[in-house]
Amino acid sequence: MDLLAEILFTLTIASTPLVYAAIGELVVERAGVLNLGVEGMMIVGAIGGFAAAFTSGSFAAGILGGILAGATLALLFGIITQLFLANQVVTGLALTIFGLGISALIGRSFTGQSLETFPRLDIPVLSDIEFLGRVLFQQDILVYGSILLTAAVWWTMSRSRVGLIIRAVGEDHEAAHALGFAVIPIRLAVLAFGGACAGLGGAYLSLVQTPIWVEDMTAGRGWIALAIVVFAAWRPWRALLGAYLFGGFTIIQLHAQAFGVNIPPQYLSMIPYIVTILVLVALSTDAARRHLRPPACLGKTFFTAR
Amino acid sequence: MMKRRTFLAGATALAAPLPLRAQSDPLKVGFLYQAPRDDKGWTERHELARVELQEHFGDRISTTFVENISEGPDAERVIRQLAQQGHELIFTTSFSFMNPTVKVARQFPNVRFENCTGYQRAGNLATYAARYYEGRHAMGTLAGLMTETNTIGYVASFPIPGVLRGVNAAYLAARKVNPDVRMRVIWINTWFDPGKEADAATALIQQGADMIMQHVNSPAPIRVAEENGVSAFGNAIDMSEFGPTATLTSMVFDWAPYYVQRVQDVLDGTWGSGDTWAGFGPGMVTLAPLNDRVPADVRAKVEAEIATLSGGGAHPFAGPLNRQDGSLWMAEGATPTDEELFGMDFYVEGIDGSLPT
Predict the structure, then answer these.
(1) Could A264 and B353 be called an inter-chain contact, meaning their C-beta atoms sit closer than 8 Å?
(2) Any CB–CB contact under 8 A between B37 and chain A?
(3) Same fold, B2-130 and B132-254+287-342
(4) Which of A208, A233, A261, A273 could form a disulfide with A256 if both were Cys (CB 3.0 to 4.6 A apart)?
């Protein structure tokens, strides 16, 4: 029982960076922009967060640093694709390469440094409950933050006027423009939000999970976040589920090995990707296409006669 | 033309000694690094050795390095450039540089090349590597003596002979000093993913390991051990700054003695190709200073173990030794040849769990 609690506890930590990055990208894609630079934004978030926390000695500054670094890189993407109308796929890939490079450059003086342990919550009564206390009430604030964020994004996207406008821009930017919505400023704002989330996800890695800075430390998590958005069919709660599925399989596989369970770890590592492919296949059926399809303007450039 | 050049290169490589050099100019020695020179890991050790080499010979040599070179066409271009600039001895310090080095060595028969951890050689191309398993054997002794839960956790990268030798050597040493010891191994199937390395170390600790060994490249497992109040062993560099309490020691490579020797050979005109695979003996493998927590009697045992390994006294894999399935690998009184060590693709008897295939 104790071990199970420990496994669930670690599983949350492994999943949280994915939740942040996936939720951010989900909103961006709902607004019709395909930003493939999630990996790049996560890695600058990781160094931004680490550098800020290390220099100031405060985790709050670290969190803010990660958010700002991710948002800055996303705005760079926004300027290039929304104002200069560059191709989004190519720019997104370039953003990742740029992010990996600049984070390594900034990170040179932070390699080999380490931070204090990130504080975890300790609620007097609740944290002491056997099993549930460990799993639910001893996490750090960023874990709770990721779940609140998912709820907030769900509510905003499906219940509020802001969400309606974002979705309108993503479904048909010409029509949204004709109705008087400022497509480009809206997309820039959404991009900044997505970058901030990805940056925070990256900062979680360097502030909480490891907590160190090393080059390339996101190790492909940005790409997994992109897969989760598709897996979730652009729905926030499903993205949360997807992130926990990816994180969960990683952790369970590690524990299975340490137990000496006789399953080659490669199979367990494969499962989330196989599920993603199955979801993609399911999405391509006619029945699913009607309500589980990507935003109609996803990745399309918006031109306007000025 | 092509034929003639190939023939010449081949002939030089096989028979003719490399030309003696004029004594007046300083010898130019080039280094190729895969990562930035201050990477807190593999490359930094080579860079420190280069600095020491330069200091040792002073103005008799001049050293150059090119850092952060990815494998592939880039590497070949840079190696060729170093050769064209008149470097007479070029160290390419990564396995990923093996093929480009082989190619360029063929085109520059008068330049001497040395590739670290590669296995392809030529008349003007030597290889060198460290016997990591000797270091891990000594660390295994320390882990076996220090563990209270009798469980050693091992965060491993890929199930290849180079990594398996380390797992087996550490386990055998630990079992020798502590018959009740168990080893739990997690393969993360990557050399570098700090998040996953941390998760694997956490999983091992949750399953009762109080000694965390690693054959992956980031200090993340050390940090996890420090946070959880257990012990850990660093890899490639002294990692104690990441976990001053947790880190019992780290395996550290010292390439300086080898570089000094090889440059001296070139200056003396005695340089020859070959393969060098060295351990504690010539000081290529060393352990960082042991943590103050290690009691004196344990310290003495570890030092004795290192002394034995240095002298080539006891081989970590001396027979009798069985594979995990109970089949005999090394008979009583026999010791494995280097060829046999290169082919080690199994767990030794006593390790739990099955090896991913």
Answers:
(1) no
(2) no
(3) yes
(4) A261
What is the pLDDT, as a whole number, of residue B95? 85
ipTM of the complex model: 0.81
**Span between the terminal Cα atoms of chain A, in Å:** 65
* Structure letter (DSSP) for residue B241: G
Q: Are the CB atoms for B199 and A254 separated by under 8 Å? A: yes
* Chain B positions in Cβ-Cβ contact with residue A205 (cut-off 8 Å): 194-195
Task: State whether residue A211 sits within 8 Å of chain B by CB.
Answer: yes
- From B357's Cα to the closest Cα of chain A, the distance in A is 7
CA pair distance B265, B283, nearest whole angstrom = 18
Shortest CA distance from A248: residue in chain B? B199
Mutation for B interface: A4, A39, A116, A215, most B CBs within 10 A:
A215
| A251 contacts B189? CB cut-off 8 A | no
Task: Go through chain B and tell me how many residues it has.
Answer: 357
Q: Which two tokens stand for residue B239?
A: 């990692």
Q: Which residue has the higher pLDDT, A126 or A44?
A: A44
How is chain B split into domains, by residue range? 2-130, 132-254+287-342
CA distance A90 to chain B (A): 22
Q: Residue B194 and residue A210: Cβ atoms within 8 Å?
A: yes
DSSP 3-state of B29: strand
Domain B132-254+287-342 indexed as CATH 3.30.870.10: no
B192 touches chain A (CB under 8 A): yes
Q: Report the residue from B187, B195, B241 with minimal CB separation from A209.
A: B195
CB contact under 8 A, B218 and A262: no
Length of chain A: 306
> Distance (Å, rounded) from C-alpha A101 to C-alpha B85?
29
Q: What number of CA atoms fall less than 13 Å from residue B10's CA on the CB side?
A: 6
The pLDDT of A183-199, averaged and rounded, is 97
User: Phi, psi at residue B336, to the nearest 5°?
Assistant: -70, 150
B185 to chain A: which residues are within 8 Å by CB? Answer: 257-258
Q: Tell me which chain B residue has its CA closest to the CA of residue A118.
A: B227
Q: What is the pLDDT of residues B9-51, one digit of tens each?
A: 444 444 445 666 656 689 999 999 988 887 777 888 999 999 9
**CB contact A118 to B (< 8 Å):** no
The verdict on A217 touching B (C-beta cutoff 8 Å) is: yes
Neighbour count for residue A115 (Cβ, 10 Å): 20
String of DSSP letters for B148-168: SSSEEEEEES--SHHHHHHHH
Tell me the domain boundaries of chain A: 2-291
The answer to whether A120 contacts chain B (CB < 8 Å) is no
Q: What is the pLDDT of residues A83-121, one digit of tens each?
A: 999 999 999 999 999 999 999 999 988 887 888 888 887
Class of domain A2-291: mainly alpha
Q: Say if residue A116 is exposed, middle or buried (CB neighbours under 10 Å; 0-12, 13-18, 19+).
A: exposed
Selection from B15, B45, B24 nearest residue B288 by Cα: B45
CA A259 – CA B352 distance, rounded (Å): 8
Question: How far off is chain A from B36, nearest CA to CA, in Å?
Answer: 9
Residue-level pLDDT at B10: 42
pLDDT of residue B298 exceeding 90, the answer is yes
Q: Do B207 and A258 touch (CB under 8 A)?
A: yes
Q: Which two tokens stand for residue A119?
A: 């504080």
pTM beyond cutoff 0.90:
no
